[in-house]
Amino acid sequence: MIDYPDRELNRVSTLLRIFWIIPIGLVLALIGNYGSEAGAALVLPVLVMIVCRQKYPRWWFNFNLELARFETRVFSYLALMDDRYPSTDEAQSVHLELEYPDVKQDLNRWLPLVKWVLAIPHYIALFFLAIGTVFAVAIAWFAVLFTGKYPRSAFNYVEGFFRWGLRVQAYAFLLVTDQYPPFRLR
Fold first, then answer.
1. 3-state secondary structure of 2
2. 17, 26, 65, 164: least CB-packed within 10 angstroms?
3. pLDDT bracket for residue 91 (50, 70, 90)
4. CA 7 to the chain's CA centroid
């Protein structure tokens, strides 16, 4: 999903990351927060189309996929996993794929109405994993500043957290699968 940087990371960029993330973070906040009105505008129409018409327009899927890729680039930059400023359209070190669903065969038309409720145990687990992620990134911040390298174990943990979050997002909000996400980092 995210390429491990096998090179020395930029220490100045790492030191000032909290400030350099602001412009691209604002862009992401304006278009992609699934917990906001903008997020509801992305999720609810797809939910209605699946329930009423058993369709998931390809262009809408492509938009949601690209948005998920962009979010992952921004969050991996914030988590110090890459020192290149997040691109709005290039993959960079993030490789994220989701399968386009055949709605009539792959998705239950009524399940999108309750998926967000069924995912509550994941939200709780992800909350606690997020606390661990903050600590892992803080440790990585010091490691990058002093050595130029991101500790591999911290990188794997943070990447696992992102993977888990993406699986839950794909299930509950992107509505591309009915397979309940597993409780694991890998």
1. strand
2. 26
3. confident
4. 24
CA-CA distances (angstroms) from residue 66 to 1, 69, 73, 89?
Answer: 14, 5, 11, 8
Residue 20 makes CB contacts below 8 A (sequence gap 6+) with 13, 85
> Residue 44 has what pLDDT?
87
Size of the chain, expressed as the number of residues it contains: 186
Does residue 117 fall inside a structural domain? yes
- Structural domain boundaries, residue 63: 11-172
What would the two tokens of residue 124 be?
A: 């709780």
The answer to whether position 43 is within a domain reads: yes
Is residue 162 within 8 Å of residue 1, measured between CB atoms?
Answer: yes
Amino acid letter for position 15 = L
pTM of the model: 0.91
Q: How many structural domains comprise the chain?
A: 1
Q: Which residues contact 101 (CB under 8 A, 6 or more apart)?
A: 56, 61, 107, 175, 176, 177
DSSP string, 110-168: SGGGTHHHHTHHHHHHHHHHHHHHHHHHHHHHHHHHHHS---HHHHHHHHHHHHHHHHH
